[in-house]
């Protein structure tokens, strides 16, 4: 998926899109979603499974980076201390974090009877955004069963936009949600992949800039519903089969902020902007057979091109949110317009040639 048209920001010239242009182009990664979108319920669950096998027994190198810490994610402290990921990743709304954490812990214990008994506990990773503008977030109705069902139904193909955890999210005061993209790059003659999935719920309309078109300034003169304070968030998941160690993944995760801001955002005070990056190239055994271990890793003096790759894949994932999201009627019966519908309404009165060109470039 990703954008239906070519991505025009050529910051990463030696990488190309993956076959699906989704995070699931990284071998072994799968995604599942549960969507609630009726009445005052506009919320859901998105699960990223990093591997098809037992991730607790064979962990992945990982790193978390907090760009701005206005958030309620779980599991990130241990990831940055130990440098490993040992569970799937669950995305949902802020007030469903506790339910999701309990469900994920129970699912991991069911798969691993030794957890909390003969070995350590488990580190569930739940990440969230506040969808309370659109969803009645005080009605905490998502159940453990909903989370477990999502965990058990993942695949390579998934929808973007107003789905899963993204149903109630906004992006630049327009409809936000889930977006994804991927890049493939050659390393020593072999193909490796990086994919991004974002839960996008941030930004002021007036700041939105796409391909150097100040589309937000144009729409801001036309669209009345705009927030006055930044109180959204964006969660970014980066998956790759490039053999980065946890230190290098920290450096990769930091570059996600550049992709986020290339569409105009400035990382506001109330925006929880958090990145989680993992690599499937190396595995870390929970029960190691030897005390010494070795892992392949990229040479640091060649890492700039992977930084560029990161920026590119994150920026396209955000644009994919905006192009796939559909207009939703919020909990107060007001429409939260998609970019497609906002541009259509704007053009009905203005016939702006810059917007005509942008609509064609984005395929909307």
UniProtKB/TrEMBL annotation:
It comes from the Bacteria. Keywords: Aminopeptidase, Hydrolase, Protease. GO terms for molecular function: aminopeptidase activity. The keyword Protease applies. The keyword Protease applies. InterPro entries: ArgJ-like_dom_sf, Peptidase_S58_DmpA. CDD domains: DmpA (cd02253). Belongs to the peptidase S58 family. This is D-aminopeptidase. It comes from Secundilactobacillus silagincola.
